[in-house]
Structure formats: structure tokens, C-alpha cells
């Protein structure tokens, strides 16, 4: 049998379709999410409804965002779901989650087994809406979860670590092997919980500066910050911030990136 065929649907590579096919893993994810009846759950990429059906049984209403038109149509025809779900047939990268939270009159609980080809940009998109989100549970490549939680001075520490930790507390939940999916991906996966900080611990004046500085630093992660941040700061300015000019991007803490961002905001005023 073709291993891309699952429940009569041919898995589309371009939409990162690897369907969950393991009851234990599904149960563990639902248990980690702990949905409550009147909460505003939003699933990204429901696919063939492996998580959608068990979650829908625990809540009054469920909103799903699915890019694949055929899958969206199947969800609307699913007898267990059709009276409970609101299907948004759209690219999740285009969804304004603030508007969704306003419509549902409460912060969102977002979850999904994310398409791995766009999981990082999708998380950056979601970070813009953390004020409207109470928590997120995602299945990701294990390597991406490692990057989300990475501390400074490690290979996995990068722009994603800094930006994710700026906005959220991050808790790895569960590791998932390739054979839990159909078709099986080539990599290990893991489920992670992200809880947006109620009060951002190192709040910057302008998050665009933090984004810009982390981009410059990590795009040239092997260079010293004297060089990689040379377009933005001179050596005196870096030294005045108590930074070691010979440090590299991976040696700076979140707090130090936030100090740099605020210093740059002040310089640009
Ligand atoms: N939730 C299902 C499961 O666990 O079996 C499917 C997971 S599959 C890894 C990813 C799902 O995301 C697919 O249904 C795919 O069509 C959908 N998807 C891919 N790109 C998307 C996007 N940009 N916006 C919304 N959904 C997307």
C-alpha cells in the first residue's frame, strides 16, 4: 500500500502532512492540553482530525485553521465534528489571532501538530499575538524543541531561543518517534508547551530592535559581536553595556539582547 495514503487521503508533502497514527501519543497530547468545556481552543492544521475529534468531545466549540481545501471539506462533513467546529480554510500564517480572541471573547488555547516545513515562521507569526493567547501546545521536530529551550553557550541556542524565551515560558512535554505518524517523518518529534508571560520579564521598548539585533548576531554566529553587531554598535558602545567584544552571538543572554535592543532604541530616537 502507498505509504502516503491514509484514511483515503494522499498526504501532501507541500503542506507538511504527517498524520498522527498512534492512540497513546494522541491520548498523551490531549491529557497535556486538558481542554475545559468553555475554553477557546484553536487547532492549527487539524488534517484528518486525529486530535480534533478527541478534543472536540471535551469542549463546546472548536476552531480549526486548515490550508488544505480537501481536508477542510472533510472536517465539515465529519459527523462527530460538523456541529461543533468552526473551520477557517486559510493559511495559518495569514490569520489574525487577536481578532479570533476578540470574537471568542477570551484568550486562545492554540494547539497543533504543526507542518514542519513552516513551523519556525509560524511560531514567529504566533509570537505577535501572545497577548491574545493563554497557551500553546505544539508537536514539532525534536530539534526545534531543543532550540526553543536552549540556553546560551550551546549550539542549539539561536534567534528562535531568544525570541521564544522573550515571549514565553517553554516546557517540553513528550518525545514522539517517527513511527507514530503516517507517513513517518525522517526526524524525531516532540511536544512542547509555550505559556506567554503575563508580564514579559525583560520587556524592551521596541521588539523590532530585538528582532533586528538577534538577526544580525545569529546570521553571523561565528563572528565576534564586535564584528557581527558592527553595523549597529561601535566597540565603545558595546563595552559600555558590559559586553565582551570577543563574545559570539551564542554567548549573550536574553537579558543582554534586551539591553542591546533598548540601547539601540535610545540611539535611534
Ligand atoms: N493534526 C493532524 C494530525 O496530527 O494528524 C495533521 C498534522 S500535519 C503534520 C499538518 C497539518 O497542517 C496538515 O493537515 C496540513 O494540511 C496543515 N497545514 C499545512 N500548512 C498549513 C498552513 N500554512 N496553515 C494551516 N494549515 C496548514
UniProtKB/TrEMBL annotation:
<feature type="binding site">
    <location>
        <position position="45"/>
    </location>
    <ligand>
        <name>S-adenosyl-L-methionine</name>
    </ligand>
</feature>
<keyword id="KW-0489">Methyltransferase</keyword>
<feature type="binding site">
    <location>
        <position position="91"/>
    </location>
    <ligand>
        <name>S-adenosyl-L-methionine</name>
    </ligand>
</feature>
<keyword id="KW-0963">Cytoplasm</keyword>
<keyword id="KW-0694">RNA-binding</keyword>
<dbReference type="InterPro" id="IPR001737">
    <property type="entry name" value="KsgA/Erm"/>
</dbReference>
<dbReference type="Pfam" id="PF00398">
    <property type="entry name" value="RrnaAD"/>
</dbReference>
<keyword id="KW-0949">S-adenosyl-L-methionine</keyword>
<feature type="binding site">
    <location>
        <position position="20"/>
    </location>
    <ligand>
        <name>S-adenosyl-L-methionine</name>
    </ligand>
</feature>
<comment type="function">
    <text>Specifically dimethylates two adjacent adenosines (A1518 and A1519) in the loop of a conserved hairpin near the 3'-end of 16S rRNA in the 30S particle. May play a critical role in biogenesis of 30S subunits.</text>
</comment>
<feature type="binding site">
    <location>
        <position position="66"/>
    </location>
    <ligand>
        <name>S-adenosyl-L-methionine</name>
    </ligand>
</feature>
<keyword id="KW-0808">Transferase</keyword>
<dbReference type="InterPro" id="IPR011530">
    <property type="entry name" value="rRNA_adenine_dimethylase"/>
</dbReference>
<feature type="domain" description="Ribosomal RNA adenine methylase transferase N-terminal">
    <location>
        <begin position="25"/>
        <end position="198"/>
    </location>
</feature>
<protein>
    <recommendedName>
        <fullName>Ribosomal RNA small subunit methyltransferase A</fullName>
        <ecNumber>2.1.1.182</ecNumber>
    </recommendedName>
</protein>
<keyword id="KW-0698">rRNA processing</keyword>
<feature type="binding site">
    <location>
        <position position="113"/>
    </location>
    <ligand>
        <name>S-adenosyl-L-methionine</name>
    </ligand>
</feature>
<dbReference type="InterPro" id="IPR029063">
    <property type="entry name" value="SAM-dependent_MTases_sf"/>
</dbReference>
<dbReference type="GO" id="GO:0052908">
    <property type="term" value="F:16S rRNA (adenine(1518)-N(6)/adenine(1519)-N(6))-dimethyltransferase activity"/>
</dbReference>
<dbReference type="InterPro" id="IPR023165">
    <property type="entry name" value="rRNA_Ade_diMease-like_C"/>
</dbReference>
<dbReference type="InterPro" id="IPR020596">
    <property type="entry name" value="rRNA_Ade_Mease_Trfase_CS"/>
</dbReference>
<comment type="similarity">
    <text>Belongs to the class I-like SAM-binding methyltransferase superfamily. rRNA adenine N(6)-methyltransferase family. RsmA subfamily.</text>
</comment>
<feature type="binding site">
    <location>
        <position position="18"/>
    </location>
    <ligand>
        <name>S-adenosyl-L-methionine</name>
    </ligand>
</feature>
<dbReference type="InterPro" id="IPR020598">
    <property type="entry name" value="rRNA_Ade_methylase_Trfase_N"/>
</dbReference>
